[in-house]
Structures are given as structure tokens and as C-alpha cells.
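Structure in, sequence out. Go:
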């Protein structure tokens, strides 16, 4: 294991675990993929950028979540996706939420149209073989939607990241819905911190993890340096009953670009997560994209991530 003093997450020595060499087609990059476990196997929904810069999703399966990924030959198609196609979209950053009460996997992703802007798209599957488009969940200028794995007060609940052009209001918000169609009760959750590593933008990352202390939110924070943005990961703890209430937040980041595959790529200095897996052993595997080019994984004890999220209470 490559340990970097001061960071809570430890990189896997086999990083990057998926690169374009693993994809059975000529593509530009594979990164920021969604992850879950299905029938005992690791199921990754790859975000792939094609050579013409269009994007698609493909499933990848592995027994151990590290290597020997079996990568699906075809791009995922969403049944009933006329609305999505009419948006003239490319889409990216899938997040997979298993919702036991619906016996369903929900997939949230960003949907971009050059003419109309970026929105939150929603789809579902039970088996990762057939996928169904649900519909848009946001108006333009809102993405990074991440659904909680259970309803709260009887409502579907998600974190998201609206981004106005009238200032640096790239903050984390929360919205709720009775049916995944009508979203409301929107409230502010957490903002940027001036002169910190997360001073430019913050956005939801992995699907929130339920813990005894609250919902653990592994988020991305961006620092605006004089030679560009630096994307890192941090933690915060949200109240179990009202997850718009922040109970604690990390001081230092838990993972930041240091290795060459995070420093150099299409977008340098980026680590960006769309999902994590909690193992029975109490280990959390955080899957992340490196430099918008490759897929990687880093691990930490759940207790250590909880402790990091409670570093600055309130
Ligand atoms: C964000 C998202 C991510 C990407 C990051 C760095 O805004 O678009 O998909 O990893 O920028 O380019």
C-alpha cells in the first residue's frame, strides 16, 4: 500500500485499476465511474469519453473490485430515453444508489446540452441488464445529484450542486421528492470555505453512508490556484433525521492529487469520486477518477472517515 502521511485514504498499489487499455474499443478516457455491489460482485458503471468527446456508460464487473474487470462490449442504453435524446445530450458522472425499500438501483448523472445547459438525469435498473430512463430531476445549472439510500420522512432525498453564473455559489444543497418527478423542499447544506482547500466549489461525491454518528458525505472540494483548479476529497457528517444539518466537517482533505496518475492527464490535479463501497470488515473503498483520465481506488477504515468528518463540529 502506498501511504501518504496526513491523508486518511490510502491508495491501492494497483492504481490506476482501469484505464483505456482495458476498454475493448478506441476511447479517450475512463474516469469518475459509479460503483455498487450486486449479487456479491463489484458492479462499476464506467464513464467513458470517446475519441470524438461524446460520452457513454458501460458496465464493468469484478469479483474483488480491484482487477480482472469484465467490461461490457456495448454502451448502456436507457429504455424510454426519448426525452434524453431530444436534449441532444452527452452525460457523465453516474452515481448508483441501492434503495432496499424499492428493491431498485437508481442512477443519477449529469446531462449536458450545449444549447440548454447541464441538468440532473435519473434512471433505474434492477439487474444492470436493462435500464430505464426516469426523467430529469432538475432544471439546468444543477448537477452532482446523489440519492440517499433510503427515504427520509417518507421522501426521496438527494444532495445536489446548483451552480449560478452570478458568483461562486457552487454549494451543496438538498432536495426531496415523493416520486422522483416533483422535487422541492430545497435547502442549503454546505458552502465553500475561504482560504481552505475547498474554497472555490464544493459538491456531493459518493452516495451518503449511514453511520451511528449520521450520514457520512464524502464530497469534492476545489481550490482555485494560480495555475488552475485542484480537486480533492473531504468528509462531512450530516444529521440522520435532517441531512441538511451539518454536524461536522473535516479540516484537511482526505485525498488529494499526488500520484502521477492524479497529477497528469486530460485535466491535471483531479481526484473525483462518484461512489464508495462499505465492506463488512469496516473498510470503505472509495472509487475515484484520476486527472479525468483513469479509474482508481483508495481505502480507509469507516471509523477514521467518521473521525475526519467530526474534526470541526457544527
Ligand atoms: C467537474 C466535473 C467532473 C470533473 C471535474 C474536473 O466539474 O465535470 O466530471 O472530473 O470537473 O474536470
Amino acid at each position: 500500500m502506498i501511504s501518504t502521511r496526513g491523508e486518511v485514504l490510502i491508495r491501492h498499489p494497483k492504481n490506476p485499476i482501469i484505464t483505456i487499455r482495458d476498454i475493448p474499443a478506441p476511447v479517450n478516457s475512463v474516469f469518475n465511474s459509479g460503483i455498487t455491489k450486486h449479487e456479491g460482485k463489484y458492479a462499476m458503471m464506467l464513464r467513458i469519453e470517446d475519441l470524438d468527446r461524446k460520452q457513454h456508460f458501460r458496465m464493468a464487473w469484478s469479483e474483488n473490485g480491484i482487477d480482472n474487470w469484465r467490461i461490457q462490449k456495448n454502451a448502456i442504453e436507457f429504455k424510454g430515453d426519448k426525452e434524453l435524446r431530444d436534449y441532444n445530450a452527452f452525460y457523465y458522472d453516474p452515481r448508483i444508489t441501492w434503495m432496499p425499500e424499492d428493491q431498485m438501483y437508481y442512477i443519477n448523472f449529469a446531462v449536458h446540452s450545449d444549447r440548454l445547459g447541464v441538468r440532473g438525469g435519473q434512471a433505474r435498473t434492477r439487474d444492470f441488464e436493462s435500464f430505464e430512463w426516469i426523467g430529469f430531476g432538475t432544471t439546468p445549472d444543477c448537477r452532482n445529484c446523489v440519492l440517499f439510500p433510503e427515504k427520509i420522512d417518507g421522501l426521496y432525498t438527494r444532495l445536489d450542486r446548483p451552480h449560478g453564473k452570478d458568483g461562486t455559489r457552487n454549494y451543496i444543497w438538498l432536495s426531496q421528492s415523493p416520486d422522483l418527478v416533483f422535487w422541492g423542499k430545497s435547502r442549503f447544506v454546505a458552502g465553500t470555505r475561504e482560504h481552505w482547500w475547498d474554497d472555490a466549489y464544493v459538491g456531493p461525491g459518493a452516495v451518503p453512508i449511514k453511520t451511528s454518528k449520521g450520514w457520512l458525505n464524502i464530497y469534492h472540494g476545489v481550490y482555485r490556484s494560480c495555475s488552475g483548479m485542484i480537486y480533492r476529497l473531504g468528509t462531512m457528517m450530516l444529521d440522520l433525521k435532517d441531512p441538511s444539518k451539518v454536524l461536522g466537517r473535516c479540516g484537511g482533505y482526505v485525498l488529494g492529487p499526488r500520484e502521477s496518475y492524479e497529477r497528469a492527464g486530460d485535466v491535471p490535479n483531479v481526484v473525483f469520486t462518484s461512489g464508495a463501497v462499505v465492506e463488512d470488515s469496516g473498510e470503505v473503498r472509495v472509487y475515484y477518477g484520476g486527472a479525468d483520465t483513469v479509474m482508481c481506488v483508495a481505502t480507509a477504515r469507516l471509523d477514521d472517515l467518521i473521525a475526519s468528518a467530526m474534526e470541526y463540529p457544527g
